[in-house]
Design brief:
Length: 279
């Protein structure tokens, strides 16, 4: 359900239909509990439809949705918009190319947000290409100006972020794209948990592999997403990959495949990090 709009925006009807559908998916997938979560979708440069507070997002109807302007003034609708709309409005202000924002509390992503562990390891090809790295916005008191301020630094450069001790936020060029990114963030978090904590081993992609995935992402028109951390480079100064973040154990000059020794070393490092972070 993704449209190619002539003026870059959906009609009121299309926007509302997509918000209701994303709300149903969000609730059905257990990405929100109770009345949590919120969704918004721009229909012009200055107006957007958004979800109300105090309602399960799985059971919304058309008349519950609220039309507001970018300053938060309600233009249509009798329901009260969520206080978390401040966060959405800030995303639109920081990056006018964003058309939709989705906020949820998916359990695994939220657990990473609580642990203070960003999703930034290059372990999944689809995650590197589709969403890139997912940083953590620092803790902010709900309902205050701290919340929009905390996410502002990531809006132009990334496709979403975790909210410390709270949940996750994604954005995109359509409501469905923002939602797909939310699904991808939770999947990335789940696989990170399995490999990091349950299996205890993850072979990170090499710098070269990450470079090629990012090149493909850029070619597909996605210029945001940052760069997940590739298998670290031991010779950062002379490394041919300018984006390499440095470190030890890198094989980005070599075969591009981890040997058995590398895998054992990485597994040991992961275990040490998990132990130190108490994860
Ligand atoms: Zn929330």
């Amino acid at each position: 359900m993704s449209y190619q709009f002539e003026d870059g925006y959906p009609s009121d009807l299309e926007a509302k239909r997509e918000i209701l559908e994303v709300g149903r998916r969000m609730y059905a997938k257990n990405f929100v509990a109770s009345n949590d979560g919120n969704i918004s979708y721009k229909v012009s440069d200055t107006t957007l439809w958004c979800t109300p507070t105090g309602v399960s997002k799985g059971y919304m109807t058309d008349e519950m949705l609220v039309l507001m302007d970018l300053d938060g003034n309600v233009l249509r609708g009798s329901w009260k918009p969520s206080s978390e709309m401040k966060m959405h409005l800030r995303v639109y202000k920081e990056n006018p190319s964003v058309k939709a924002v989705v906020h949820a509390h998916p359990p695994v992503s939220t657990s990473f947000a609580i642990a203070g562990i960003p999703l930034n390891r290059a372990i999944l090809t689809e995650a590197v290409m589709g969403i890139g790295e997912i940083p953590i916005a620092p803790y902010a008191m709900p309902g205050t100006q701290e919340v929009p301020d905390s996410i502002a630094p990531f809006v132009k450069t990334h496709n979403g972020c975790l909210l410390a001790n709270h949940g996750a936020l994604t954005w995109g060029s359509s409501c469905m794209e923002a939602w797909m990114r939310m699904e991808s963030v939770e999947y990335y978090a789940t696989v990170s948990m399995y490999t990091g904590n349950i299996i205890g081993q993850a072979n990170e992609l090499t710098c070269e592999q990450v470079d090629r995935l990012i090149e493909r992402r850029t070619n597909s028109g996605i210029t945001t997403g940052g760069r997940p951390t590739c298998r670290d480079c031991s010779d950062k100064d002379t490394c041919q990959f300018s984006t390499c973040k440095g470190g030890s154990g890198c094989s980005c000059h070599g075969s591009g495949q981890a040997g058995a020794d590398d895998a054992a070393l990485i597994a040991q490092i992961v275990r040490n990090v998990i132990r130190e972070q108490g994860f």
